[in-house]
Design a protein that fits this description.
Layout: E1 6-16, E2 22-25, H1 27-32, H2 40-54, E3 57-60, E4 65-71, H3 78-86, E5 92-93, E6 96-107, E7 110-114, E8 120-121, E9 124-125, E10 129-131, E11 139-141, E12 144-148
Antiparallel strand pairs: 1-2, 1-3, 1-12, 3-4, 4-6, 5-6, 6-7, 7-10, 8-9, 11-12
């Protein structure tokens, strides 16, 4: 039985405080954290991006796929969405925009996802498989933690 199957939502993002200590910010803290922008349009865009990012969900499925989804961005008409779906430009599941699908595999009690990242670091090949689960029950991708919602 795969204990990871289900829907996982944003829990927190890791960053460093002014003293260099690793901290985790929940959605509200992340959205409202200081921006390195001065242009009002850039600030508006960054705040919208942060909000969308905190609304991202992962669905771990029984078919060894992890599907990441987010709400449809505001300001996009139904006609634009229908055209993009018909052209194959985007996919929808319910009221969520499908961002991507990734393959996963179980290794013992751990969940590994094929990140699709290839190349080299310091002359060594990069392993595209990343462990997602943490010892305290979250899924963690890079700096972002997700918690199970169903």
């Amino acid at each position: 039985m795969n204990k990871f199957i289900g829907v996982w939502k944003f829990n927190s993002v890791a960053t460093f405080d002014d003293d260099g200590n690793l901290i985790r910010m929940n959605a509200e803290e992340y959205i409202n954290s200081p921006l390195n922008e001065e242009n009002p349009e850039e600030i508006k865009h960054e705040l919208e991006e942060r909000k969308r990012y905190t609304q991202t969900v992962f669905e771990v499925r029984a078919d060894n796929k992890i599907v990441s989804k987010m709400p449809i961005p505001e300001g996009i008409s139904k006609e634009e969405i229908d055209e993009a779906v018909a052209s194959g430009e985007i996919a929808l599941e319910g009221d969520m925009l499908v961002l991507e699908e990734k393959e996963y595999e179980l290794r013992g009690d751990d969940l590994y996802m094929n990140s699709g990242i290839h190349g080299e670091t310091l002359g060594e090949p990069v392993n595209p498989w990343v462990k997602l689960n943490t010892d305290d029950g979250f899924l963690e991708l890079f700096t972002t933690r997700f918690e199970r919602v169903k």
